Amino acid sequence: MQFLAKMTVVGLATLTMAHPGEHHQHNEVAELSKREFRAATRRGLVACADKLQARDGIVERAGIRRAAMVAKHRQARGLEVRDADTVLNTSHLSTLGYTIDTPESTIFASNKTCILSPEGEIGPYWVKGELLRTDVRDGEPGVPLVVEGQFIDVETCEPITDVHWDLWNCNSTGVYSGVAVAGNGNGDDLTNMEKAFLRGVQKADDEGVVTFETVFPGHYAGRATHQHMVAHLDATVLANKTLSGGTVGHVAQMFWDQDLISAVEATYPYNTSEIDITPNSVDHVFVAETTDTDSDPVFEYVYMGSDISDGIFGWATFAINKSASYDAAYSFVWTDSGSVAETGSE
């Protein structure tokens, strides 16, 4: 099994907007400035690291859970489920010092991203009220991707169980569902408003864990490959399986290692795009989320098989300050008949 988790070193850069007319809103914490909040979060996460390690086996269970998740999806794809002997004889590429003798359970228990606190931009294409579901693929072609997020209360170091993870990204050719505007594929295709591919919401379990089955995102002009997320606290599930109310405790965009992006983009249908790939190093959101912080907004991941087409499993641990509240702007709302244009804030 190959393993890779890198932190790309970036410099300050500016670039054109991702889509024509795209507006990027910088969200602010209600009680604290963003800089003060990040500083407080970093201090709290340092204390949480030891507590999480000692707390009732939560780190060890994370390792077991993630290993089981990969085994499950390998079996579903007809791939070999590797045992301990196989792992011992497999190289794990990493900057974290893993060796050929590092147990798989140790790798999957890595919570390097527990220092992650990327309060970033929500972007213009969040559709409020997305559907509650785990599998968001809707038949979209591309590299299969399973992502796990674990949510931790930075003040108590306990898992957050009343959080809903709202996750969305563009498809393999750079198009978002639920949106019909210039710059998002064929902006005149109104049928896209009826689609919800690669969008979904799911509630955390008793360990603060949420898992999605999706497709690795493609790219579009001016932006590095990324996935959007919002963490909803104390929200209400409506009869139509959408979310309402509560507060927004976390807004971020998550990224992937550049080597992995290059490998994915060499495959079909990603390689049909004629748009230049924007690297992490010059992406303005990546820069904003990492400058003057200890934040590492990059998923850790493993390949599920010997080839990238077999799929990828990625994971991250998100530190949430439950007393924080963000104003998440939206321009579209999901209804029983699809997405409709509507501007507001959550």
Automatic annotation (TrEMBL):
Oxidoreductase listed as a keyword: yes
Please list the coiled coil stretches.
Answer: none
- Matching Gene3D superfamilies, A to Z? Aromatic compound dioxygenase
Instruction: Kindly indicate where the leader peptide sits in this chain.
Output: 1-18
Superkingdom assignment: Eukaryota
Q: Name one GO molecular function term.
A: oxidoreductase activity, acting on single donors with incorporation of molecular oxygen, incorporation of two atoms of oxygen
Q: Which UniProt keywords apply?
A: Dioxygenase, Oxidoreductase, Signal
- The segment(s) forming the Intradiol ring-cleavage dioxygenases domain are 132-229
Q: Answer yes or no on keyword Signal.
A: yes
Could you tell me what this protein is called?
Aromatic compound dioxygenase
State the organism of origin.
Pleomassaria siparia CBS 279.74
